[in-house]
């Protein structure tokens, strides 16, 4: 089944909807809507108030019950899935305990706004995040948390929440609707793009892929990218298994993580967006193998990723002149 990857609300059937924002790159996240009668649940909000407001208007127009969002589930703490929480001041917000803790430590939107204002026009941050409005965001944090697994219902519809992280972040949660065989994965699945490993370990992410593959699931709504199915999860698992093996070889040979990221051939995933994420992803494998507990410094990682296209071009040039 091919789903169109267009901005807006996509009807998955039986009161389940995906709200997609193409093209899925940095900050362009998806969210979900589940409606039974007058009962409503939103899976994630968007990166800013404007985008979240626009999304809510679209939802309310197509599904009138969505005018009142009763419950929000945040799949993880990143701003592109939580900054819009404040648009729904009365909604109950549920997340894993780890996600609630991480939200206390993410860079506040106002700090992002100030950083963007100061960034020079050619800055990578401006290129990747310049379209978003970080001013005027009132952060809302989870009002209820769970550990491990919990289930809730929207009308008669059963919803299972599985804390599957740490992988992309510590608190990653899968939102599974077993009766409908639909799963909202948050950023455990990036469709048609390189995933980005912030927390790791990568082996836990491979476990998360296996977990999804074992469930009875027909439709997968990823955190970024088009609506997909288990085949995308199987490919993602292959990516991580391959990445791990290739990074491990280079680690054992004494190569540093950055050189390894540039050297590893990812041709079989060449259609995927954001290859610069090889940098944090290889670094995550190195941390895992060397049992380094410290987390990556996000702004340093972004500074390295900003060099990717230039360095890859130089690399290609050097190869062609050899
Ligand atoms: Zn995201």
TrEMBL record:
Residue ranges occupied by any Metallo-beta-lactamase domain in the UniProt entry: 28-224
SMART domains listed in its UniProt record: Lactamase_B
Q: Which InterPro entries does the entry link to? A: Metallo-B-lactamas, NDM-1-like, RibonucZ/Hydroxyglut_hydro
A Pfam family that the UniProt record links to this protein: Lactamase_B
Segment forming the signal sequence? none
Q: Which PANTHER family match?
A: ACYL-COENZYME A THIOESTERASE MBLAC2, METALLO-BETA-LACTAMASE DOMAIN-CONTAINING
Protein name in UniProt: Metallo-beta-lactamase domain-containing protein
């Amino acid at each position: 089944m091919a789903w169109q990857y267009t901005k807006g609300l996509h009807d998955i059937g039986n009161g389940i909807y995906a709200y997609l924002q193409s093209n899925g790159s940095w900050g362009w996240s998806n969210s979900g809507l589940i409606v039974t009668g007058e009962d409503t649940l939103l899976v994630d909000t968007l990166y800013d108030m404007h985008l979240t407001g626009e999304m809510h208007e679209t939802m309310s127009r197509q599904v009138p019950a969505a005018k009142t969002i009763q419950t929000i589930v945040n799949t993880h703490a990143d701003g592109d899935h939580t900054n819009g929480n404040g648009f729904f001041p009365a909604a109950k917000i549920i997340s894993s305990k780890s996600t609630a803790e991480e939200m206390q430590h993410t860079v506040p939107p106002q700090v992002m706004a100030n950083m963007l204002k100061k960034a020079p026009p050619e800055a990578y941050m401006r290129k990747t995040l310049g379209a978003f409005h970080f001013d005027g965001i009132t952060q809302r944090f989870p009002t209820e948390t769970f550990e491990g697994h919990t289930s809730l219902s929207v009308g008669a519809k059963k919803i299972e929440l599985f804390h599957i992280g740490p992988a992309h972040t510590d608190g990653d949660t899968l939102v599974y609707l077993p009766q409908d065989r639909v799963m909202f994965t948050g950023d455990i699945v990036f469709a048609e793009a390189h995933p980005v490993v912030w927390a790791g370990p990568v082996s836990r992410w491979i476990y998360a892929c296996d977990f999804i593959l074992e469930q009875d699931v027909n439709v997968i709504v990823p955190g970024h990218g088009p609506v997909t199915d288990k085949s995308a999860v199987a490919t993602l698992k292959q990516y991580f298994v391959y990445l791990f093996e290739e990074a491990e070889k280079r680690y054992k040979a004494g190569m540093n993580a950055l050189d390894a990221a540039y050297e590893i051939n990812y041709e079989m995933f060449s259609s995927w967006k954001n290859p610069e994420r090889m940098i944090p992803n290889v670094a995550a494998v190195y941390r895992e193998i060397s049992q380094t507990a410290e987390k990556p410094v996000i702004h340093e990682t972004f500074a390295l990723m900003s060099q990717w296209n230039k360095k890859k071009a130089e690399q290609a040039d050097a190869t062609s002149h050899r």
